[in-house]
Design a protein that fits this description.
alpha+beta, single chain, 4-stranded mixed β-sheet, about 50% helix, Hypothetical protein af1432
Length: about 425
C-alpha cells in the first residue's frame, strides 16, 4: 500500500496549477527513461530565438494534455456517457504518449535525418515496445491511439481538430511565448464537450469558444510557429544537418554524440529497424546542439559558417511572398552569396533557398468540429457559426518564403506588401 501511495504524485504546473498523476501505471510510464527524454526536448524547437521564454518542453505538454484528458472524461461521464475505468486509463495513456515519438527539433529532424518516418509512427512503435515491457498493460491505449477501439470518440479526444493535444499546446505556447492572441478558454470548451452517435460534439452554448479556438490557432501560426525569424533559425538547422549528413556520406569526419552519429551515417527506411529505436530513444536537444557548437570549428567552410551563424544568432533574412520567387532571381542571389561567403554556387544553396508554408487553422475535410443544438441536430462549425471568420479560416492560406544572408540585397527586401 505504501508503494502505491508514493506513486500518487502531484505536479505543479504554471498553466493549470496542481496536476495529479491518476494511477500507478501512469506514474510508471512517466518515470520510464523514454518518457523522461521528453524533458530534454523543447516543445517549440528554436522559437526561443524570437520569444526567449518559449523554452518549455514536450514533457510539460504531455503532462498538461493528460490533465485536460482527465477533465474531459470526467465531464463526459457526468453527462451520462459510459467510459469504464479501463477505458479512462487507456485514453489517458494514449494522450500521455501521443508525442513520445518526437525527436529533438522534431519537424527539422523529419526533414533531414529521419525522412519519411513520421513522429506518430515512432510514437506507435514506442507504445508497442512499452506494451511488451509492461506485459500488455497498454493494449487498449494502443487501440484508442490507432482508432481501432469501438468507441471512436475516445480517439477523437486524443487526435482530432479539437483534441486535448491542441487545447494544451495553444494555451501553453501562448503562455510561454507571451503571445496573448493564442489564449483560449479550455475549461469552457471541455465543459461543452458531448458525444452524439459515437462522435465528439460541442454543445451549441460553446460555439463562441470554438470560434475563438480556431482564430487563436490561425494567429499562433502566423505570429509564433511561422514567424519569419523562427523559420530562419529552423531552416538553418535543416541545412546544418543536411550538410553534416552529406559530409558523413563522403566519409569526412563529422564528430557527434553516439545517438546523433547513428543518424548521420545511416539512412533508415522505416522505424522498425532495431538500431533506429535504440538511437532515437537516446537522442535529444543536447546531442544536436552540442554537435552544432562543435561543428562551428569544422574544416568544412559551409558547415562551420552555418553552425557559427546559428549558435550566435546571425540568422538569414526571410521574406514571405504570395508567389514562389523566380528561379532566375534565386540563382542571382546565390551567385552574390557565393562571392560574399567565398564558396561555390552549389554550396551557396545551403544559404539561399525558398520554401512553402501553409496555415490550416480548420479543415472541414478532415475530422470536423461538430456543434450539437438543443433539438438534437448536428452541424459543422463552419456551417453553424454566425461569424464570417470561421468560413474564412476554414480555407488553407499558403505562403512562400525566400531566405538569404543579411547584407545580400534582394528585390523583395524591405517590402511589406508580400507579408501576411
Amino acid at each position: 500500500m505504501e508503494e502505491i501511495t508514493n506513486k500518487r504524485k502531484i505536479l505543479n504546473d504554471p498553466i493549470y496549477g496542481f496536476i495529479s498523476i491518476p494511477d500507478e501505471l501512469v506514474y510508471d510510464i512517466i518515470e520510464h527513461p523514454w518518457f523522461q527524454r521528453l524533458r530534454r526536448i523543447k516543445q517549440l524547437g528554436l522559437t526561443h530565438y524570437v520569444y526567449p521564454a518559449a523554452q518549455h518542453t514536450r514533457f510539460q505538454h504531455a503532462i498538461g494534455a493528460m490533465h485536460l484528458m482527465i477533465q474531459a472524461i470526467d465531464i463526459l461521464r457526468m453527462k451520462g456517457h459510459e467510459i469504464t475505468k479501463r477505458e479512462r486509463e487507456a485514453t489517458v495513456l494514449a494522450i500521455l504518449l501521443h508525442d513520445i515519438g518526437h525527436g529533438p527539433f522534431s519537424h527539422t529532424l523529419e526533414r533531414t535525418l529521419v525522412k519519411g518516418i513520421h513522429h506518430e509512427a515512432i510514437s506507435l512503435l514506442i507504445m508497442e515496445q512499452l506494451n511488451k515491457e509492461f506485459k500488455g498493460a497498454l493494449k487498449m491505449a494502443i487501440r484508442v491511439f490507432t482508432d481501432t477501439y469501438p468507441k471512436h470518440f475516445l480517439h477523437q479526444l486524443v487526435s482530432s481538430q479539437l483534441d486535448m493535444d491542441r487545447l494544451d499546446y495553444l494555451k501553453r505556447d501562448s503562455f510561454f511565448s507571451g503571445v496573448q492572441e493564442g489564449v483560449i478558454n479550455s475549461d469552457r470548451i471541455i465543459t461543452m464537450l458531448n458525444v452524439e452517435n459515437d462522435l465528439l460534439v460541442v454543445d451549441a452554448k460553446g460555439i463562441y469558444s470554438i470560434e475563438k479556438f480556431i482564430v487563436a490557432r490561425r494567429l499562433m501560426y502566423w505570429q509564433v510557429y511561422f514567424h519569419k525569424t523562427v523559420l530562419a533559425a529552423e531552416y538553418m538547422m535543416v541545412e546544418i544537418l543536411k550538410r553534416a549528413k552529406y559530409l558523413a556520406g563522403k566519409k569526412i569526419a563529422v564528430s557527434a554524440p553516439d545517438p546523433l552519429e547513428v543518424f548521420l551515417k545511416h539512412a533508415f527506411r522505416d522505424e522498425h529497424d532495431p538500431v533506429f529505436l535504440n538511437a532515437f530513444t537516446r537522442l535529444d536537444d543536447f546531442d544536436v546542439f552540442y554537435a552544432i557548437k562543435s561543428w562551428a570549428n569544422h574544416p568544412d567552410r559551409v558547415l562551420s559558417l552555418l553552425c557559427q551563424n546559428l549558435v550566435n544568432r546571425r540568422l538569414n533574412q526571410v521574406v514571405l511572398l504570395n508567389n514562389p520567387a523566380p528561379a532566375t532571381l534565386i540563382s542571382r542571389i546565390r551567385s552574390k552569396g557565393a562571392r560574399s561567403l567565398k564558396i561555390s554556387n552549389d554550396e551557396a544553396a545551403s544559404f539561399v533557398y525558398c520554401g512553402k508554408i501553409a496555415n490550416d487553422a480548420y479543415n472541414p475535410k478532415k475530422d470536423r468540429i461538430l456543434i450539437r443544438f438543443r433539438d438534437g441536430h448536428v452541424e459543422d462549425i463552419a456551417e453553424s457559426s454566425d461569424q464570417l471568420n470561421v468560413h474564412v479560416l476554414s480555407k488553407t492560406v499558403s505562403k512562400y518564403f525566400l531566405s538569404f544572408p543579411k547584407g545580400i540585397k534582394s528585390k523583395y527586401q524591405d517590402t511589406d506588401k508580400n507579408t501576411p
